[in-house]
Amino acid sequence: MSVEILGIIVVPFLAALVALAWSDNARRPWLLPAAATVHALLTLRLLIQPPLPASGAWISLDALGLVLLGTSSALLWGCSIYGVEYLRRRKERDNRLFTACYLFMLSASSVVAVSRQLGLMWIAMEATTLSAAPLIHFKRSDRSLEATWKYLIMGGVGVGLALLGTYFLALSASGAAGGSYTLQLDALLALGPRLSIPWLRGAFIFILIGYGLKMGLAPLHSWKPDAYGESPGMAGAALATVLTGCAFLGLLRVYQVCVAAGQLEFMKGLLVFMGLLSLGTAAVFVISQKDFKRLLAYSSVEHMGLLVLGLGIGGGGLFAALLHFINNGLGKGLLFLTAGNIHRAFGDKTLDRVHGALRRVPVSAALFLIGFIAITGSPPFGLFFSEFLLLKAAVAAGRWGVALAAAGFLGVIFIGMAVTALSVAQGVPPDEPVLPGHGDSILTTVVPGAFAAALLVLGLYIPAWLTARLAAAAALLGGVAP
Amino acid sequence: MGQFAQLLLVAAVFLSFALLGTASLSGCVGLLAMQGYCLSLLPIFIHRGGLEPRAFLLAAGMAALKGWLVPRVLTHAIREVKIRREVEPLVGYVPSLIIGVVIVGLSVVLAARLPVSGEARSGLLVPVSLATMMMGLFMTVSRLKALTQVIGYLVFENGIYLFGLLVSRDMPWLLEMGVLLDVFVAVFIMGIVIHHISREFDSIHTDRLTQLKE
After folding, report:
1. What sign results for the dihedral spanned by CA atoms A150, A156, A158, A161?
2. Residue B212: which of A147, A160, A163 has the nearest Cβ?
3. Is there a contact between A240 and A306 (Cβ–Cβ < 8 Å)?
4. Which residues are bridge partners to A59 per DSSP?
5. Do the domain assignments include residue A457?
6. Which of these, A255, A421, A264, lies nearest to A354 by C-alpha position?
7. Cβ neighbours of A56 (radius 10 Å)
8. Rounded CA gap, B60 and B44, in Å?
9. pLDDT value at B199 more than 80
């Protein structure tokens, strides 16, 4: 284990412990950017110079882990800077648990990214799930309580089923490896077609359900609108990117094993079905959605659907899905943070009372609109490019029906989101003035602004090093670069 | 698999049935604790000639956690919220028991079809594990009180733990310890949330938790 890998796990963990012990409510939030900056710098080092994967090790970083690590580190770094200002404005609330759990989540998600042992990965996954619960409950209202409860019960069942799938995976190796069980990824990949196929298929189904529940794929998404709607913006961004990203990586790992065992065709059907179902569900619920934070949750269901659709298409779809994962992360960061700003300025998040955000919080509302344009896959932003690649891969694979259905759902979602986003931004705001300290400031808009800029850059030009990293990651899944 | 292990497994199923038919919350917690103790003895007896220190450590950890600590947290929560009974489950007690019987039958059929190898094939471990999981899930979805939902979730976890015993012999025991720790943290957090629910709504009925919907 290199120093950098140790650092990305230990530094946030220690910072979380300090946050628990520190009683200064006003200065404690500074731990967030401090630890996240160290994390981001170490991740940058790992990105520039990826360590050689150590075969057989429990902890080692490969190209797929790097995609998750890079995205979540960048997003949480931005959110942690925003978090200082957010928590300053909410100084009447005790932020001890919030700060500590945010940092615990950063540490646990790093473990997910670097673990090559699927049991260890599951433990870290459960840790991310549990550490997110206090983030959803930060507002301490009855509504946030309800959201937290649904999240805990459904998330608990999800990780339980994923554990069952993990046991199935261990059992699938037992016949081939002379009666001994293993969950080490390299060992499983080496066994390949000698794995017991019935157990492996069972493992894939249970892990798809378990981690799919955590990703919020339809029809397992019912906790998502509640949790995203009631949590603060910076927590929603973390849930929609880091938590779902961890679950996505879990799914990718079992996908890798199934590809090695020659089970690609078996998975493709299920993944395409789940993907299209998620897109369709999102399209239904986005229409006439009055709550713009819940809208973001359905948008997340949509994009999780696109990710698994990319896996189901295979070939060029894998590269597209990984690129889409990065774009979706940036887009969700932008949207959740600006939606939080608008929510704060109006004291409400439904269309009944939120109009004319462009007049009340001009910068946040403009960024929110940019975010909406980007997340619905309009040019010139990154998501347009990755969705285009995805549809192109579907057509190249001869799956015209899938491509047409996906494009149709995307169109409906665009219209549905446009209605809500535009009526938030336009019109005349209610008469009562903004409470002091609830308007726009540089600190609340610079981070979403940076996310928007990054999305624009990714839409216009993908640097060669990023293409190389993504192609290496897609190659691990048996995909090809476009 | 020894005779005693089979006996423990049968006891675990009976306890799940008893949980399905019990209205009193403290009764439920007591039954859950007994199931926890039953399961904690299993690692010692389940593998022939497997009396190794690791099995004893696991058994001790299980007994301390599932037999003692978790029930204590739940008992504390019950005392806090001053509620004794699950008043109206979504599915009545007698239908619940009948569904339990169906679940057990289903698990036996399902277990026979699973390609389990070796000595586990003849034993009761796989069917009991499946039945416990399904009964736990059924309890989680059919009960309205936050506390009974947690108890159902824990029964579900017990079923998964039983399945884990199948692979535990050759696996590094990190996984088992991780599972135990996670269960503890989960129950701890759920206990805190139950406390908040009772303070916020003066009840731990989750049917009050219905503000958020489409």
Report:
1. negative
2. A147
3. no
4. A115
5. yes
6. A421
7. 12
8. 10
9. no
Rounded to whole angstroms, the Cα distance separating A413 from B192 reads 38
Contact B193 A137 (CB under 8 A): yes
* Amino acid letter, B89: P
- A261 falls within a domain: no
Contacts of B164 in chain A (CB under 8 A): 163, 167
The residue with greater pLDDT, A305 or A351, is: A305
**Secondary structure letter of residue A53 according to DSSP:** P
Contact B115 A196 (CB under 8 A): yes
Bridge partners, residue A117, by sequence: A184
Gyration radius (Cα) of chain B, Å:
17
Chain B touched by A230 (CB under 8 Å): yes
Q: Does A368 score more than 90 pLDDT?
A: yes
Interface test with A, best of B137, B208, B214 (most A CBs within 10 A): B214
Domain that holds residue A423: 272-482
> In which element (H, E) is residue A146 found?
helix A142-174
Tell me, letter by letter, the H, E, C secondary structure of chain B. Answer: CCHHHHHHHHHHHHHHHHHHCCCEHHHHHHHHHHHHHHHHHHHHHHCCCCCCHHHHHHHHHHHHHHHHHHHHHHHHHHHHHCCCECCCCCCCHHHHHHHHHHHHHHHHHHHHHCCCCHHHHCCCHHHHHHHHHHHHHHHHHHCCEHHHHHHHHHHHHHHHHHHHHHHHCCCCCHHHHHHHHHHHHHHHHHHHHHHHHHHHHCCCEHHHCCCCCC
Residue A333 lies in a domain: yes
Residues of A in contact with B185 (CB under 8 A): 130
User: Cβ–Cβ of A167/B185 closer than 8 Å?
Assistant: no
Residue with tokens 């008992």: B75
**pLDDT tens-digit readout, A82-141:** 999 999 888 888 899 899 999 999 999 999 999 998 988 998 998 898 899 889 988 888
In a domain, A247, yes or no: no
Residue A66 contacts residue A56 (beta carbons within 8 Å): no
User: Six-digit token pair at B140?
Assistant: 């989680």
Query: In which residue are the tokens 């089923």 written?
Result: A161
